[in-house]
Amino acid sequence: MSALLDVRDLHTRFRTPSSVINAVNGVSFSVQPGETLAIVGESGSGKSVSMLSIQGLLPPHGGAVEGGKALFQGIDLLQLDKKEMRKINGAKIGMIFQDPMSSLNPVLTIGYQISEALREHEMLSRGEARRRAIDLLRLVGIPMAENRLNDYPHQFSGGMRQRAMIAMALSCNPALLIADEPTTALDVTIQAQILRLVRRLRAERGMALIWITHDLGVVSRIADRVMVMYAGSVVEEAGVLDFYATPRHPYSRGLLSSLPRLDDNVGEQLRPISGQPPDLSKLKAGCPFAPRCPYTIERCVRETPSLVPTGSDPRARVACWRANEIGAYHEQ
Amino acid sequence: MLPGDPVMHMFAGQYVTAENMALARETLGLDKPIYIRYFEWLLRIMQGDFGTSIVSKRPVADMILSVLPRTLELAVAATLVTVVFGIPAGVLAAIKKNTWVDSALMVVVSLCVAMPLFWFGLIALLFFSVELRWFPVAANAGWSSLVLPAFVLGLQSACMIARLTRSSMLQVLGDEYVTTARSKGLSPWRVVTVHGLRNAFIPILTLLGVQASWLLGGAVITETVFARPGLGTMAVDAIRQMDFPVLQAVVLIAALTYTTVNLVIDLMNAALDPRIVYDTEASKA
Q1: B176 to chain A: nearest residue by CA?
Q2: What is the ipTM score, two decimals?
Q3: φ and ψ at residue B161, rounded to 5 degrees
Q4: CA atoms within a 13 Å half-sphere pointing along the CA-CB vector of A83
Q5: Strand A208-213 relative to strand A176-180: parallel, antiparallel, unpaired?
Q6: What's the pLDDT tens digit per position in A39-70?
Q7: H/E stretch holding B130
Q8: Confidence (pLDDT) at A306
């Protein structure tokens, strides 16, 4: 089976007059049709920038892709000109964002914003696009959809706005949906509803999903595979069950052990990862996580570990010199 | 309040007796204290009576009506220049931020804003009318005589609008819904106009309203420089000749225009931004 999206050695840098920020440093991953990949990492780890790079949506002044390939259905997105890229964005790749309030245009109606992509990509007439927009709003569970079409975003609640965003992203039946922290700005009950909705839609439509998040609780409920990013690099990739059972990278271990658990003893403290992520304009040789890692040896500071296969899963990878030692120790 | 005595002005250089001057003051109503005169004026205005000019002895309403169309024509043309040049220039500068296009536009804009209007008018007149002879020097030659004054009057506001449009667009283009629009694969034109300008336009419209009032002040200078008959020249003449009733009427019209234009702008803002609602029911809720 060939991959739907195959990203290889992606590099993105932001250049300012005084410094160069290495936002994405050689990121590689692939997504199979119908598969859900969760990309996990803290703010500034390059999760969102990687996605924007692939889609050619980096802000016009600043960031630029400086190397790599992004094969989508066999076509390298990074080689496409803007016009060709526009035929893919919104049509074959749908995108939903973190904050549904600021991601919707406040002065245009919900109906207009949903039908916009349909009219652009499928050349539908106003009336046809409107009918499709009503169907889409129904699909995402907005009651009395035909009456809500002429509403503006501020007349929708937070959860309904995110539903409308999903309707918008799905309008042209994309093969891949990229969701950039779509539940972070929502409260927990709404979060659960949106998760259920996306799971249902993914199953019905057989689309692949990239779910960017820093919330490991969400990951376990939606993902097939997990990819962990740190300081613009992939540090680990694994199937979701393996990831929770035997995280191999010390950073993944840190993330998982900083989660509160139901079976924790009362009064037990959370274990945060100490230290700060590195300054992306001053990356040096060596593992970027080394300064915060409890397992650092001299080699970690000297040489950057490359992402290598690990374990029995052929797609599982980890970038740590001591992954095998640490894995073996904890499996005992 | 204007210092000086219009009666002295009327009879300047003539032999008049003190009685005659007193009589003239009485017929003009100038012997009464100022607050009485003000309320009398107010009462007459309510009845649609703007009084009679001290100098020409014609009804002020007639005088105003005869020149009002010329000033309106100038104001509308100048606003058109402002919108047609200011907004696209600002949008262009925003899209081409930090390129030579942006820098060149902003240099021109700063120069324009810094130039005094009367000086700019004189230079334009000298260059385009006297040297190049593209436009008539005289003010009464139909549409072609409107071009230069409208440009002179409109260009400065156009430059301010261009600057505001640029900053407003830059802010809006950085907003997340613009990224959403781009992620839908829309054309750059649609992204900039439908998603960008539509949102950036709200502060621009407000400044346009402020400038509409400023335009009347500018009309005084422009009309004087180009010797165009209009409210501006009429006001200047009235000040010179201490023609109270005319000046009062011009000031009143300026004030009315200002409030009307700004009311219209507020209503347009509400039409443009669905979040603004002028509805007593909604404000109670």
Answers
A1: A103
A2: 0.85
A3: -60, -40
A4: 0
A5: parallel
A6: 998 888 889 999 999 999 888 777 889 888 99
A7: none
A8: 86
Closest residue in A to B272 (Cα) is A107
Predicted confidence (pLDDT) per residue in B128-178, tens digit:
877 777 777 665 667 777 888 888 888 888 999 999 999 999 999 888 899
Min distance B185 CA to chain A CA atoms (Å): 4
Question: A152-189 b/e with 16+ CB inside 10 Å = b?
Answer: bbeebeebbbbbbbbbbbbbbebbbbbbbbbbebbeee
Starting at the edge strand found earlier in the chain, the sheet holding A5-15 runs: A20-31, A5-15, A63-72, A75-76
The C-alpha R_g of chain B, in whole angstroms, comes to 24
Question: For the residues A21-30, what does the mean pLDDT come to?
Answer: 91
CA A263/CA A278 separation, integer angstroms: 33
Q: Which of A10, A8, A37 is nearest to A207 (CA)?
A: A37
**Which of A49, A99, A103 to mutate to test binding with chain B, by most B CBs within 10 Å of its CB?**
A103
Helix (H, G, I), strand (E, B) or coil at A265: coil
The 3-state DSSP class for residue A63 equals: strand
Question: CA-CA distances (angstroms) from residue A59 to A62, A82, B179?
Answer: 7, 14, 8
Q: Show contacts of A182-185: CB within 8 Å, 24+ apart.
A: A182/A96, A182/A97, A182/A98, A182/A211, A183/A213, A183/A215, A183/A218, A184/A98, A184/A213, A184/A214, A184/A215, A185/A98, A185/A99, A185/A100, A185/A101, A185/A158
B195 contacts A105? CB cut-off 8 A = yes
Task: Pick the range with the lowest mean pLDDT from A2-16, B184-198, B210-224.
Answer: B210-224
Cα–Cα distance for residue pair A57/B177, rounded to 1 Å: 12
Give me the amino acid identity at B40: E
* Distance in angstroms (rounded) separating the CA atoms of residues A30 and A9: 11
Contact B274/A88, CB-based, under 8 Å?
A: no
Least CB-CB distance to A154: which of B198, B272, B275?
Answer: B275
CA A198 from centroid of its chain's CA atoms: 14
Q: Which residues of A touch B180 (CB under 8 A)?
A: 95, 97, 103-105, 165, 168
Going A142 to A143 to A149 to A151, the CA torsion angle's sign is negative
A-interface mutation test, from B97, B172, B177, B184, most A Cβ less than 10 A away? B184
**CA-CA distance, B37 to B48, in Å (whole number)?**
16
**CB distance from B271 to chain A under 8 Å?**
no
Where do the domains of chain B lie, and which CATH numbers do they carry? 6-46 (no CATH), 60-284 (1.10.3720.10)
Q: What is the pLDDT of residue A10?
A: 93
